[in-house]
Design a protein that fits this description.
This protein has 3 helices and 15 strands. It is mainly beta. The strands form 2 sheets. Strands 2, 3, 4, 5, 6, 7, 9, 10, 11, 12, 13, 14 and 15 form a 13-stranded antiparallel β-sheet that branches. β3 and β4 form a beta hairpin.
Length: about 270
């Protein structure tokens, strides 16, 4: 698995829940909750996991999981963006470390001199890429429709409905739900095709390489953010897929992919 800035979705921490479950429904600017307000020297850590399951008749269920943890130290906050030093570990894989920068738009990441749009499902900071145009003022019950123009890590281009479930202006905490649909490949699909590494399923004890033809995707998730830092994030994408072998044999199946991320440490 190639290195990706550790990012994925989650179960909420008890500390965060203790804040938001009793939170009053104050209105306020979306920036108050979603624009990162980190400081130089701040340390953040998260744990994350990602699961892909494909199940259908005629083959063994395909089940791939990866999980790990990451630590981040804020080394610079400028008008250009936020710079981190990070170290990470994907369980069962090698550990790694390095510095990277999140530009002011919140969408672009720069690593080792290379900048690209961050299309990952979640991460240490709130990423507007998957949320559409956020209203200037938000309150509990606010809704908006977001358009995702390009495929993202586990989902296709499409549209989604976002709702503010609760917020706490005093602590800068907001909880959002999202539900969407779209058609076509995810960026994971595109990366796999580009790498030339097909999905491998097992039938009657034999491994078979297949290409994946995606149907319409449906997703839903729940995200809690504190002043631009992801406290907890979970999202599941479900879709019908057709698996095709090199000989033309086809298997109809259902795929579900979900990511979980939880902020495990936040030292200001």
């Amino acid at each position: 698995m190639k290195y990706r800035t550790p990012i994925i979705s989650i179960f909420a921490s008890s500390m965060a829940l203790s804040l938001i479950c009793v939170a009053p429904a104050y209105a306020g600017s979306g920036d108050t909750y979603l624009r990162p307000a980190v400081k130089v020297g701040q340390h953040l850590s998260d744990v994350f996991s990602k699961t892909v399951s494909i199940r259908g008749a005629g083959f063994d269920e395909y089940d791939k999981r990866i999980a790990g943890s990451a630590n981040y130290t804020v080394t610079a906050v400028t008008s250009k963006g936020i710079t981190f030093d990070s170290d990470y570990r994907y369980d069962g894989y090698s550990e790694g470390s390095g510095g990277y920068q999140v530009l002011q738009d919140g969408i672009t990441n720069c690593f080792q001199g290379q900048c690209s749009v961050n299309d990952q499902t979640s991460g240490v900071l709130f990423n507007p890429y998957l949320w559409g145009d956020i209203p200037k003022d938000v309150q509990a019950g606010s809704t908006w429709k977001g358009t995702i123009a390009q495929p993202w890590e586990i989902g296709p281009s499409g549209s989604e409905q976002v709702q503010v479930l609760r917020l706490d202006a005093a602590d800068g905490v907001i909880t959002l739900s999202r539900a969407g649909t779209g058609s076509g490949p995810s960026s994971d699909d595109q990366a796999r095709e580009k790498s030339g590494k097909p999905v491998v399923i097992t039938k009657d004890g034999k491994q078979i390489e297949v290409s994946v033809i995606p149907g319409e995707s449906h997703w839903s998730g729940l995200t809690t953010v504190c002043r631009g830092v992801i406290v907890s994030d979970e999202i599941m994408v479900e879709r019908h897929v057709t698996l095709v072998t090199k000989t033309g044999e086809k298997f109809e199946a259902e795929q579900r992919t979900y990511t979980l991320l939880d902020l495990s440490s936040d030292a200001v």
